[in-house]
Amino acid sequence: MAPAKKKSSGIGESIRKRALSYPQTHEDFPWGESAFKVKGKTFVFMSDGEDGVSFSVKLPASRDLALSLPGSEPTHYGLGSKGWVTLRPTSKTSAAVLQFLIDEGYRSVAPKKLVDALGDPPRLPIPA
Q1: Cα-only R_g, the chain
Q2: Candidates 1.25.40.10, 3.30.450.20, 3.90.1150.10, 3.90.1150.30; correct CATH number of 10-114?
Q3: pTM for the structure as a whole
């Protein structure tokens, strides 16, 4: 019998839903955490547990922006030097900003044909 899936937080479910909305993506569970992949390449790692949500995303263009967000840091294990950032979003973190970062992560690893089919990337939401 398969183990029962643990209940996800609202933020975790939002990240999962967004990551899986892209063409040819799927979720794997290495090390007991979620890894969202396109064509075998990971664009988001996520932990959603008692300590809250932590997710890492590849951000070649928006790395500095992401690092300016509260609770963010370069991803460990040498990934930070390759543009990966780990974030710990809270209920105060803008869903639009999270979606923007996940979109960049997907576009950074997906095959060009899949990226081209998406059209223009979203613009970063700037508060008025």
Answers
A1: 14
A2: 3.90.1150.30
A3: 0.85
